[in-house]
Amino acid sequence: MEKVNIIGAGLAGLSAAISLAENNIASRLISVQPSERAQSVLAAGGINGALNTMGEDDSTENHMEDTLRAGVYIADPEAVRGMTKAAPGIITDMHRIGVPFNISDGKIIQRNFGGQKKKRTAYAKSSTGKMLMTALIDEARKYEINGLIERYPHHELAKILIKNTESGKRECTGVTVADTYNRRQHTLAGKTILAFGGMNGLFPGITTGTTANSGEAAAIAFSAGIRFSNLEMIQYHPTTIGIAGKRCLISEAARGEGGRLFVTRDGKPWYFMEEKYPELGNLMPRDVVSREIWFVLHDPTCGDQVYLDMSHLSKEIWRDRLPDLRKEVMHYLGIDPAKKPVPVDPAIHYFMGGIDVDICHRTNIAGLYAAGECCSQYHGANRLGGNSTLGAIYGGRAAARDLAETLTTAKENQGNTENFDGQGSAEVERPGAEAVLAIGEILKESLGIVRDGEEMENGLEKLKRLEPAANESEKRRLNLAEAILLSALYRKESRGAHYRRDYPEKNDAYRGLVTAEMTKDGIQIGNMAAGEQ
């Protein structure tokens, strides 16, 4: 039978594989790391869905409106409607297969999360991602037994195979992957779902994502002519701490349970978010909070460090809702957050932009889909906390659902199996460490919380100076980096996570997707209404 290739084994990849298996369609789950070490495991705070268990008259329409408003209305409304409508059922499904959500009186407890006026974030203490992944891994094993899911851990994407059809369209025919242990390459025919996560590796040292997420798969996809959108929308999470090689997230759950941000002013704590935004205070959307931190740190009347004060939270909250968060802070900083304020800084946490997909998660290449953080769909200009886990699960299901409708049953396809096809040992060319750091430093300087055209133009010039000495892998990385900067320069406005000093106002001439595509004539930047393909 025909098998589907899934690149990535986190929430989106697992959800797609399980959904395909439920329709008797086999898949290969291909990933550099096993699912147990996917970035999805790191998700702490929760998963959103209007269960309305907290007596606040919540609804899926409320959830949809909060999502669109936080994303400043550039996400596809129909796609967001589909996700938020499915959210309660997804949470119920996850609970059914074993996710130990916090429960009271037989009902799933939901907490406050940024940008939302209702308590709609279900959680499993402060390890929701790990609990979701554990349940989905166990669910997937049921289908591994009969061969409907085959796992290929320690394999990385080397190439996306694309052909031109007689009708003039481009079609994905499979992928080439490489075993990271023995460097043996293999060609795998079949339709493909990309679920490889965000582009953390383009910004080394300043993201909360796993260091294993190198950005190579995204660079391969972009250079293959797969259209991306909203690359300029990079979310800085307001509360992180530094650890070796990356940033460690202090979950928004801490503020959802009552944590307060402050900076010293005139020798006294100033709770600036509560003064500036009295309705939601510390639970304003992440782009707003990160930007306000930037502003106070550049205010000469304020101190040079922002703190998150959680010392007033009750013993019950620390025990039942935030135990892992407390352990992490104590481990990395030697500070007990139940007793002392924690110094925090914004860091890159999520990429709203990525591979451009339609409502069914189809890309501009026939037979090729994308789901999870690697794609641009539900979050617009800023993501709500708790919508990433939801979007990954829903997106994986949506891609699988559309694929299931296009593929015939396994029984009808017997005899058409494409085997795991060895192609001999070969080294996959990788970018050098010096080039990775150089590109990362340029992007860091050019694409901060507050940016402007001059900085970004300078960044482009610096990237171009790296091109003559670059190998093929480095050139792909440079292509993607240039596309991010060109997208940010094209959007001459401030919207959500994209804030420009030189264009500080929102301009509805840009109320749409900024698209980026590699063509034979170079990188093409355009504007497209949400929902178009």
Can you put this structure into words, describing what you see?
This protein is an alpha+beta fold and 533 residues long. The chain has a domain at 237-349: Flavocytochrome C3, Chain A, domain 1 (Alpha-Beta Complex). 32% of the residues lie in helices and 23% in strands. The chain has 14 helices and 25 strands. It has helices at 11-22, 60-70, 77-96, 128-144, 216-223, 253-256, 272-276, 286-297, 315-320, 323-333, 387-406, 433-446, 453-466, 472-490; strands at 3-7, 26-30, 47-48, 103-104, 107-108, 110-111, 121-122, 149-152, 155-164, 170-179, 184-189, 192-194, 228-229, 234-243, 246-249, 260-265, 268-270, 302-309, 342-351, 354-356, 368-370, 375-376, 421-425, 513-519, 522-528. The strands form six sheets. It has a six-stranded antiparallel beta sheet with strand order 15-14-19-18-16-17. Strands 8-2-1-12-21 form a five-stranded parallel beta sheet. Strand 16 and strand 17 form a beta hairpin. Helix 5 crosses helix 14 and helix 13 (453-466) packs antiparallel against helix 14 (472-490). It starts with a strand and ends in a 5-residue tail after the last strand.
Provide a brief overview of the structure.
The chain is of the alpha+beta class.
**CATH A-level architecture of the domain at 237-349:** Alpha-Beta Complex
Strand order of the largest sheet: 15-14-19-18-16-17
For this entry, what is the oligomeric state of its chains?
Answer: single chain
Which radius of gyration do the C-alpha atoms yield? 22 Å
End-to-end separation: 30 Å
pLDDT below 50 for ≥5 consecutive residues: which ranges?
A: 409-422
Number of strands: 25
Overall body shape: globular
What's the mean pLDDT score? 94
Strand residues, percent: 15-25%
Give the CATH H-level superfamily of the domain at 237-349. Succinate dehydrogenase/fumarate reductase flavoprotein, catalytic domain
**Biggest sheet descriptor:** 6 strands, antiparallel
Counting DSSP H or I runs of 4 or more residues, the number of helices is 14
Q: Which structural category do the helix and sheet elements fall into?
A: alpha+beta
Question: Given this structure, which CATH class of the domain at 237-349 is correct?
Answer: Alpha Beta
